[in-house]
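Comment thread on ticket #2218

A.B. wrote:
> Attaching the input chain for the structure job we discussed in standup.
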Amino acid sequence: MRNSLIGPIVFLVVTAITPALISQGAAQAEELKTKFFNPRDLSGVWWVADPGPEKLLARGEKGDASKCQTCHINEHTMPEPPLTPWAKENLAIKNEMPTAMIGQPADSNTAPIGGPQRHFCDPIGMPAQFWHTQLAPFEFVMTPDRIFQFFETHNEWRTIWMNRDHPKDLEPTYMGDSVGKWDGNTLVVDTMGFNGKGVIEPVGVDTQMSDAFHLVERWRRLSANNIEVDITYSDSKVWGDELWGGLKKEFILQQGMQLTESYCTQEDLDKYNERMSMGFAKPQQ
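C.D. wrote:
> Ran it. Output below, let me know if you need it in another format.
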C-alpha cells in the first residue's frame, strides 16, 4: 500500500517544482545575459529613455543649449565657446521657434528650428542627427572592417571605417568622412570633411558649421541595454582654437524594434507641422 502511493506523490512533487525551476532558470539566463555582454558590440536599435518632441520644444523656447535642463538628460556640461568675428559675420543663425510649432499655420517665410533643413527637406547630416534621436531611433550594424549607423529620421546613414585614415582628398559631404578605432572598450569615431552646409545643432546653437568642422565621438557600452556617447566639437573658423565638448547622450536598446521608412516629403512635412500645431498650440488669450 505504501509503495502504491509513492508514484503519485513523486508526480505531484515534480509537477509542483518543475514550473518554479523553469522560471528560476529563465531568470538566471536573463541575469547572465545582462551581466555578461560584449562591450565592443554596439549592434541593435537604440533610442533615448524618454522620446518625444515636448522637451525639444521647451528647449527651443529657452534657446539654451549650454545647460539643457529641459531635455531627457543634461546634454552640454560646458557653454559654447565665443564665436570668432568671421563666424558672427558669416555663419550666424537666429534660432526661433517656427510658427507652425506654436499653433499658427506654416508659410513659405517660416523657417523651422535651426534653419532650412526640415522646411526644404535638405539632408540633416552630422552631428545634428544626434538631436533628432529625441524623436526617432537609430541602429548600429557592425562588420569587421566598418560600422554602419542608420538614422530613422530622413532615412540617413553613414559608414564608420575601421582601421584606416582619412583620405587626403576628401569629398565634402553632410555626413563627413568617419574613421573609427577601439580605445580599450570605447569606440572612438573621428569625422571630418564636412561641406559646411549643415547645422551643428538645430536648437540653441547660434552658428552654422564651417567646412573646417571636426567631430569626435566616444561610444561606450555601459551595460547590455545601455550605451553612451561623449561628443566633442571643434571648428577653427567658428571657435578658433577652442573645443566644445561635454555633450553626452545615453541610449537604451530597443529589443525587437525595426527602423521604419521616414523620408522627408512635402506631404510628411505638412503632417509634421499639423501635428506640432495641434499638440503644442499656445492657449487662446
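A.B. wrote:
> Thanks. Noting for the ticket: The radius of gyration is 24 Å.
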